[in-house]
Specification:
single chain; alpha+beta; Heat Shock Protein 90; 2 domains; 10 helices
Length: 365
């Protein structure tokens, strides 16, 4: 496209925007006020009411067009410090008397001398042009105030949207931080347990390494997921691999079961969240217990459709362990970030000893 063609397009866009600004409701108000003005002036004018209405409507519409045009096309060379409303007001103040002058020149067939030498015509000129300027400026002021209010509302909505976006980014960053705090904890703790078995020359070392490979295959892809929440089936696979690994480390002290209700494995659930409870049960429940214990992992749906995940151990119980550490605190905060206040993580004692940890989160499907 040539430079000339580019220049020709710009005014067309401006004209279309200007015409779109002349809304039917605005035109109706202007014409209505012009008719009212003609009715008020009719007793003191010699021309018929119809002719007088034509004059007032012409002046009103010309003033409106000048006011609107000044808002779209600022005069060249005008300092930027001059506000747009001032330019529009000056345009209206000039357009009203000029339009009235055109009306009278038409009525005198272009005889300017006949206009200026006729006192009645000069009197009529003032009665039409001056009220047109005053009423037009009042209406223009109201229009500008409404425009400013609309701009203020738009800016407020944009600010609210920007703040909401910043809040969402903050939640995402916090969630990423919590995930980064949790995942290395499990990985390096498991590696430390495997290292202890390998260094002691245990004959179970090859089997342990195979289980470690299965665990890493289940865990490592989860660490880099950028999309939505993974399926619960992925988390259950990871939990089984971890418990198998721990069982090989202490075969006489740890027994476990992992049960999932039919259809529940397709539910979406944060990676590593269930593993947090399982690893906690091993470290703080089974490991300190002299005779070890059993861990049961259950996944099911409640009557209201909520997802229930329960990890029960028969270890030493909460009374014999230290206060909950950062793992559970981070998990609570992570669940709240994903599901909101409806998510719950509760711990309860199990008779005669042990702990039951339950996660309850809402599910859309």
């Amino acid at each position: 496209m040539s430079a000339d063609a580019s220049v020709a397009v710009a005014p067309a866009i401006g004209w279309r925007a200007w015409l779109r600004g002349l809304k039917p409701l605005t035109l109706g108000w202007v014409i209505g006020l012009a008719v009212v003005g003609a009715a008020l002036l009719n007793p003191i004018f010699k021309p018929s009411f119809l002719e007088l209405t034509g004059r007032t409507v012409f002046v009103a519409l010309t003033s409106l067009l000048a006011f609107s045009a000044a808002g779209h096309w600022q005069p060249r060379g005008l300092p930027r410090q001059v506000p747009r409303w001032l330019v529009q007001s000056l345009a209206l103040a000039l357009a009203a008397p000029l339009a009235t002058l055109v009306v009278y020149l038409v009525s005198t067939r272009g005889d300017f001398r006949a206009f200026v030498t006729n006192e009645a015509r000069l009197f009529g000129f003032l009665w039409i042009s001056v009220p047109a300027i005053l009423v037009g400026l009042v209406l223009a002021l109201g229009s500008l105030l409404r425009e400013r209010e609309a701009q203020a509302r738009t800016l407020q909505l944009q600010l609210d949207l920007h703040q909401a976006e910043l809040a969402r980014q903050a939640v995402d960053a916090r969630l990423a931080l919590l995930t980064a705090q949790i995942e290395p904890h499990f990985l390096f703790n498991t590696l430390a347990n495997v290292q202890a078995l390998v260094e002691t020359g245990s004959p179970r070392a090859p089997e342990v390494l195979r289980s470690l490979i299965a665990y890493l295959r289940a865990a490592l892809p989860r660490l880099h997921e950028d999309g939505g929440l993974p399926a619960l089936a992925n988390e259950l696979t990871l939990v089984r691999a971890y418990l198998e690994l721990m069982h090989l480390r202490m075969p006489d002290r740890l027994q476990f079961t992992v049960q999932a209700e039919d259809g529940v494995e397709t539910a979406r659930f944060p990676a590593m969240a269930l593993l947090t409870l399982v690893e906690n049960a091993v470290r703080h429940g089974i490991d300190p217990a002299e005779d070890g214990g059993r861990i049961e992992v259950q996944a099911r749906r409640a009557a209201d459709g909520a997802l229930l995940l329960r990890v029960t151990d028969t270890g030493v119980g909460m009374a014999a362990t230290a206060a909950p550490g950062t793992g559970l605190a981070n998990l609570r905060e992570r669940l709240a970030s994903v599901y909101g206040p409806a998510a719950r993580l509760e711990l309860a004692e199990v008779a005669p000893h042990g702990v039951c940890a339950e996660i309850r989160v809402p599910q859309a499907a």
